[in-house]
Write a structure and sequence with these properties.
Number of helices: 5
Strand content: 15-25%
CATH class: Mainly Alpha
CATH architecture: Orthogonal Bundle
Shape: globular
CATH topology: Arc Repressor Mutant, subunit A
Number of strands: 5
Radius of gyration: 21 Å
Number of domains: 1
Distance between the termini: 54 Å
Order of helices and strands: EHEHHHHEEE
């Protein structure tokens, strides 16, 4: 099973990114990891991979449509919006568009390059001084 991961890295900074790229250039060891992308912004991840685009990706992977038109019809979505979202998925490297001849016409067939998407938001470490949700607060008398 091929998995693509969207990773949230809250402490990543542009300076870190450039330093890693510089090191990769000097050592000629690739820094960019295959099958994943990372961001220090949850809103950026969620705006890039909206619910509609996630649904679109899985429709491509599961239904294996013959064309973007067929994909739009199966999802009951406007074809222009589907084309826009397909281009984003293609730009992220999640799908590939294959151009095929259908008689005199050419059509683009979207093909998923992964079976699964994972959104990794990391571990959350709660501070001990904060009460857990639903637990009683400590009183000053205790």
């Amino acid at each position: 099973m091929e998995t693509f991961t969207f990773r949230y890295q809250p402490k990543a900074t542009p300076k870190d990114l450039f330093s890693r790229l510089e090191k990769a250039a000097k050592t000629k060891v690739r820094d960019i990891e295959k099958d994943q992308t990372s961001s220090n912004s949850i809103p950026a991840i969620l705006s890039t991979m909206s619910a509609g685009r996630i649904q679109l990706f899985y429709a491509i992977a599961d239904e294996k449509p013959d064309s973007i038109y067929q994909l739009a019809q199966s999802l009951h979505r406007d074809q222009a919006n589907v084309i826009r979202d397909v281009r984003v998925l293609e730009g992220l490297g999640l799908i590939e568009l294959l151009t095929e001849k259908d008689g005199e016409r050419e059509r683009s067939r979207p093909v998923a390059l992964y079976d699964r998407l994972v959104f990794d938001f990391g571990e959350v470490r709660a501070k001990e001084s904060l009460p857990r949700r639903g637990s009683p607060k400590k009183s000053a008398a205790s």
